[in-house]
Amino acid sequence: MPSLYSVLFKRFQIRVFLYLLLVTALPLVLVISLFNHQFAEYSEKTQMSQVNQTHDQLLLKMTQELRFTAETTHRSAMDYGIIRYAKLTDSAANAKELKELNTYANSLLSEQRQRSQYVEQVCLTLHATNRTLCAQSSEGTEGLAARLNGPYKSFEPLAAENSKSKGYLLTYTEPITDKISLQELGKVTSWFNMSKLWNEMLVKTSNQGYALIDPQQRVVYRDGVYRGDEFQGEKPGDDVLQADHNVIYSMKHVDVGEGILWKSYYEVPQMAVSFPHYRTWLFLLVTLLILLCAGSSFLFGTYVSRPLNVLKMLMNRAELGDLRAYWTSKSSKEWMQLGDSYNQMLNRLEDLIKQVKREESLKKEAEMEALHYQLNPHFLYNTLNTIKWVAKIHKTPQISEVVSALVRLLQASLGKKGEFIPLREELSLIHDYMAIQKFRYGDRIQVETEADALTLGCLVPRMLLQPLVENAIIHGIEPAKREGVIRIRTWLDRDLLFCQVEDNGIGMQVKEGSSGWNAIHDLGESHAGKMRRERMSGIGLSHIREKIKLYYGPQFKMHIGSNPGEGTTIRMSLPIHQEEE
C-alpha cells in the first residue's frame, strides 16, 4: 500500500505548490535579509542626495538674486541720465537741468530698489558735487552708511558697525565712468540683505547649520553651528559631500561673478532609519507567500490541469479511431475556444477520411473502365508500320509519310518524352500534323513559322501549340471556304516566352473589355458535334488554358483577340525554361 507521502507528492497540485514555494520563498527571504542590511546604507545615500540637491537649489536661488542685483546696479551706472547728472556742477546755469536730473535719478534708484525685495538701499554718489542720493526700503529700516570704500563689481560683507540691522548685508558698487575720457564721475552702491534671503529659503530645524565664506575668509552669512574645520584638508576648488557622526556635510564652491568663488557650507543631522519590525514583517511575508502559493496551485489545477487531462483523454480516444470523442466540458473562455477547434478538427478529419475513400473508389472505377477500352500501343505501332511498308511496296509514298507523321504524333501524345519538350520538337509535331491534314485540304491551308532562334531550346508543355492550329483550321479557315494562312510566331521579351498563333479565318465577335472566352464557349457549343468528330484529340482551348494555369500559375495567361471576317489571334505568355545541355 503506497504511503501518504507518495500519494500526496504524485498529485499535480502539490507539486505546483512546492515548486512555487521553493522558487519564490527562498529568493524572497534572501532579498529581505539583504534589504535589511542595506537599507541603512541606502537611506544614508538618499539623504545625502537630498542634501546635495537642496544645497544646489539654495545656491541657485542665491546666485540668481545676486546676479540680478549686480545687473540692475550696472544698468543704473551706465544710464545716460545718471552719467549726465554726474558731469554737471552746481551753478545757476545748470540749476534747472540739475533739478530734472535729480528727480530722474531718485526715480531710477527707487525703481531699482523695488525690483528686488532683498535690496535694502541703493545710493548714488557724485564726485563733482560731493552729493549722495539714496533710495531706502519702506520697511522701517534706518538709513545705512552711504559712503563706503571698497572694490568695485564685487559683493562685500558690510561690517557690523556699519549695519544698524541685525542681519548680514552685502554691498555691490559699480563706478560711473565718462565714456570718452574714462574719468570716474561717481558710483552706484546697492545694499543686499542676505539674512532676509536665507530666512525665506532655509527650513529651520534643530542642529542645522549654514555658512558662506568669501575668499578672504570673511563670513558672508551664517546660521546655526559652523564646522568648517572638517574640510580644511580638501583641495582648493573641490566640492565635498560626506556623512560623519550622524551629520551630513556639504561644501560647495559658488561663483558670484567676476570669477570670485565663495565657499558654501551646509550641514544637516542624519536621521537614523532602519527597517522596522524586521522579524514580524518577515514572518507575515512568508505566511502570505504560502497562502498565495496554495491558492495559485489550486487555481492552476482547476483551470489548467483538469481541462488539460480531459482533452488528453479525448485525444487518446480519437487516436484509437473514435472520431466522436468531442469536447463537451464547460471551462474558461480560452479552453472553450481550444475545445471548439478540437471538435472542428475531428469533423474535418472525418470529412477527409470520407473524401479519401470516395476518391479511391472513383479511381478504381476509372481504372476498371480504362481497362475495358485500352488499346495496346505496341499493337497500334506495329499495325501502322505494317501499313507504311505495304504503302512503300505498292509505291505510294504519300501514305507512308502520313503514317509516319501519325506515329510521331501518337508518340508525343502518349508523353514518352515527358510532360515538357523543346519548342523545336513542338513545331516539328505541328508540321507532322499539317502533313496529315494536307491529304484532306491540299494546298488550301499554309502554315508560316517565324521562330526566334533563342526560343527553340525553351521547354514548353507537350501538345501546346497543335490544339491551337487545329482550332484555327476547324473554326476559322474551314468555314471561310477560302485559302487560309496560319502564322506561328515565337519570341522572347525580358523574362517571358511569347507564343502566338494567328489565322485569317472567319473570326468571331469579342465584346469590348471581354477576354474572348465567352465567344469561344458559344462557338464551341454550336460546333460541339463536329469538334468531337474532327479533332485528333480531346484537347481544346479551355484545356490549354487550364494547363498553363496548372503548370505556371494564374499570372501566366492566354489572350484571345478576334474580329468577324479578320481572323483570330491567340497569344500565350510563359516563363522561360531552357533545356539542359
TrEMBL record:
According to its UniProt record, the EC number is: 2.7.13.3
Q: What top-tier enzyme class does this entry carry?
A: transferase
Q: What does the record list as coiled-coil region(s)?
A: 339-369
Q: Which residues cross the membrane?
A: 12-35, 281-304
Annotated GO molecular function terms are: kinase activity
Keyword Transmembrane helix listed? The answer is: yes
UniProt cross-references to Gene3D superfamilies, sorted A to Z: 6.10.340.10, Histidine kinase-like ATPase, C-terminal domain (3.30.565.10)
What's the protein name?
histidine kinase
